[in-house]
Design goal:
It is built from 3 helices and no strands. By secondary structure, the protein is an all-alpha fold. This is Carrier domain-containing protein.
């Protein structure tokens, strides 16, 4: 995944956060385990990743912690890079 592709994903996630009136999120700040985002937001983000970025997240071993922060998401996506 290129830096520009990840930036698109990050921009999308920051947009989701903005709808929850959450701004100024750091790359290592917990999003889900902190309660900042809920399961509906997780579904939105996962759907966006699968649809717009053609990322298959149907893995049985997937854990919400893989996307709990922007840094965790970047690491997760890098590990799934073809």
């Amino acid at each position: 995944m290129s830096a520009s592709e990840f930036q698109q994903i990050k921009t999308y996630i920051l947009g989701v956060l903005a709808t929850y009136n959450i701004h100024n999120v750091t790359d290592d700040q917990a999003l889900f385990s902190s309660g900042m985002l809920d399961s509906l937001a997780a579904v939105q983000i996962l759907t966006q990743l699968e649809t717009d970025f053609n990322i298959d997240l149907a893995d049985e071993d997937f854990d919400i912690n893989h996307i709990d922060s922007l840094q965790a998401l970047e690491n997760f996506l890098a590990s799934r890079k073809n």
